[in-house]
Every structure is written in C-alpha cells, then in structure tokens.
Write a structure and sequence with these properties.
The protein is mainly alpha-helical. It has helices spanning about 5-15, 20-40, 85-90, 100-110, 115-120, 125-145, 155-165, 170-175, 180-190; strands spanning about 45-50, 60-65, 70-75. Strands 1-3-2 form a three-stranded mixed beta sheet. Helix 6 (about 125-145) crosses helix 7 (about 155-165). The chain is globular.
C-alpha cells in the first residue's frame, strides 16, 4: 500500500460515509466478531485482520496458517449498509472456496432470516461464472493458441468466452491480462 492509495481511501470513506479508515476497519472487525459468535459458532479463527483496500476487484477473504487467522479485504466502495452482508459472504469462504454448492449451503444456513439473503443467492450463478473464468481462462486460451495460432485476439477472446460459457465482457473483466498473454502466445507460435 502506498501513501497515495491510503489518502485516496481516506478521502472516499470520509466523503461518502463520513468515516475514517480506522473506524471502518474497526466496524468490520466488530461485525466479524459478532457473526463468528452468533452465526458461525466460533468456527472461524478468533483473529481477523480486516483491511480496506484498493488491491481487490471487490471483497475477498484469505485464510492463512491453517486457519489460525483470516485476512478480509473490503473495497472502499463497499457501502456501510452492505458491511454485514459482505462479512457473511466473505466468512463463508472459510468453509468453501469459490461459490460452490457448499458455499451456498453455508451462506443459506448462517444468514437465515437476513433480508438480503434471497438477493445474494440470486447472484450465485454469476459468481460461479466468474469463478470458472478465473480458474480456467488461461488453460482454455493456451489450448486455443495451439489449435489456431494465427487467430486475431478479438476472435480469440470470443472463442475463449464461448468455451467458458460466459460473455466476452465478463471474461475480459475477470481476466484483464488476456490480450497481453494471447499476443505473447501467438508470437511464440509464429517463431516455431
């Protein structure tokens, strides 16, 4: 994290939510502790490091040292009214990576009675597409480059998106290095 990013985050939080970064992170940790006690039966690590960060394309959870502690990164653009929903979501990743059926089952179990739950579950299909893109796009691209090494990248991104079962826009958003990597693969193929 650099000073410019820190200042930018502080400005967003102060301007949009009238909170400092420290206040925001304390609020998120308090929500984590409350949910861990009341909804997760203390099954998550006791220690949570919650950081407001620009270094994520949304909100993410990372579990380190075999569950001894958890890092949760929250975007500064996450609204305070969404903090509770966000923490439920990220905490469920302790039990299931990605947005699998196990994740949905856990979220449904622990968030029972929350007003936002149905809307959140309606997003599952899109999350699963994003998971599939993040997990498989480079492998699919590599195979395609072997099959059709002269294919222009505009056509290649369409073909890869089709093979992944997603929209080109979603694939490009979730795989921002696609163009660069495709052009490198094509250049390698031409040298052979």
């Amino acid at each position: 994290m650099n000073i410019e990013e820190d200042m930018f985050i502080e400005k967003i939080l102060a301007r949009d939510y009238r909170m400092t970064r420290k206040q925001t992170e304390e609020k998120l940790v308090n929500i984590y502790n409350e949910l861990n006690a009341t909804r997760f039966n203390h099954d998550l690590p006791k220690k949570a490091f919650v950081r407001v960060s620009l270094r994520t394309d949304g909100n993410t959870a990372t579990f380190k040292n075999m569950g001894v502690f958890v890092w949760i990164y929250v975007s500064p653009f996450c609204k305070p009214e969404d903090y509770r929903r966000t923490m439920f979501h990220e905490m469920c990743h302790f039990f299931a990576l990605g947005h699998s059926d196990a994740f949905v089952k856990k979220l449904t179990q622990v968030a029972k009675g929350e007003l936002w739950l149905e809307k959140e579950l309606a997003k599952v299909q899109q999350w699963q597409i994003i998971d599939r893109i993040k997990r498989n796009w480079s492998e699919v691209m590599f195979k395609l480059s072997k099959e059709k090494p002269r294919m222009p990248w505009i056509e290649a991104r369409r073909a890869v998106a089709e093979r992944l079962g997603c929209k080109v826009h979603d694939m490009c958003k979730e795989a921002p290095d696609f163009k660069k990597e495709w052009l490198e693969l094509v250049a390698l193929a031409k040298r052979k």
